[in-house]
Amino acid sequence: MNSSFGKRISINYISLLLIQVTNLVLPIVTFPYLISVLGLEKFGLIMFAQAVCSVLYIFVDYGFSLSATRRITLQRTNKEEMAIVFSTVLLIKIAIATSVFILYSLAVFIVPKFQVEKEVFLLSYLMVVGQACFVDWFLQGIEKMKVMALLSLLAKGVFTLLIFVFIRDVSHYVQVPFFMGIGYILAGILSVILALKYVSIVRPSLTLAKELLMESFSLFISNLAARLINTIPILILGFFVNDFTVAIYTSMEKLITTSKGVFVSLYQALFPWLVTQTRLKQRAYVKKMIPIVGLLAIIITLPFLICGGWLLNILYNNEAINENSHLFYILALNIIFTSYFMLFIAHYFPAVGDFMSRLKTLAFSALCGIILGLIFISQLEILGAVITAVSIEAILLIFSIYYFIKTRPVGTI
Are the C-beta atoms of 307 and 364 separated by less than 8 Å? Predict the structure, then answer.
């Protein structure tokens, strides 16, 4: 990499890291407040609804966060082609979001778990609408990560401000998903407006739409499996245990998940460069990253292992959470597992276009996760959720390494 390119990578990484820092800081600010005002049961309900809608968003995204980014990156010197990709992807996502909402609304009025708190579940879908409008795939493709960071900060900043201004007692819990949706929708609309500085909206291509849908299908299945992997403990706890337990689990899990954002930012920043390299250079790069990623993961994990219980007590000061703080140390191990499997799943396989290896790894791991979750969580509740979460990520890492080795070009190590 030359100095100017290295500088651009650094700026992109810092911008993406800002998004992840925001993702870490805001829960630290808002979660304790919401738990103290709403109580664990209502907080858990909101977290469960968010988990459901986060799965629905994968249907709306349909893998475009990777496939569309890759197309934009490869065609960003061709303004006409880039405009067609932009317009086609945006139209597809809006159409899917509308269709999913219709089906989801029917489920909300039919499924007993949803029906009891239908306002919360319906309003939570606003987050999906906002994310559908958010053209981060385009901004990442043209390497405008700074814009992504500012818009993400805006969305979460608006949500946080509205929470502290309007959420005053437990009766206001329905407003929480509404405020979150407003933040995402505002960021989504602004992202489209800003994107129009670099691209124009043209007539979508039906041929391209078909190509993108076929090309992105394996990515969609992979991403659906990945999202299920992340949400299986919450979904099973929500459906088969109770919202109170969901709240305890998510109060700890969210801190671990957001700390993984360091690696998300790093891989996103380097992705456009990695796409343009030869297969041999891509594999050599991955091998060079292994010790760097390991060291970074250990540095991030150690504070959680050393003072995790103290951190939970300071943040939440909640008896039920403190009683389960020992589980936080087990969850912290996921930072190490995640840092490595993401190197393959979210970085290498998409960059080289090996979506089948990614699909097999994620699909098999998700299947194992569902089986483990139903067994352990039904018997051990929150302890079972923690065991399931750690086991899934360990399985992911094992299969990621297996397919990385299996797909190596002939004559390479």
Answer: no
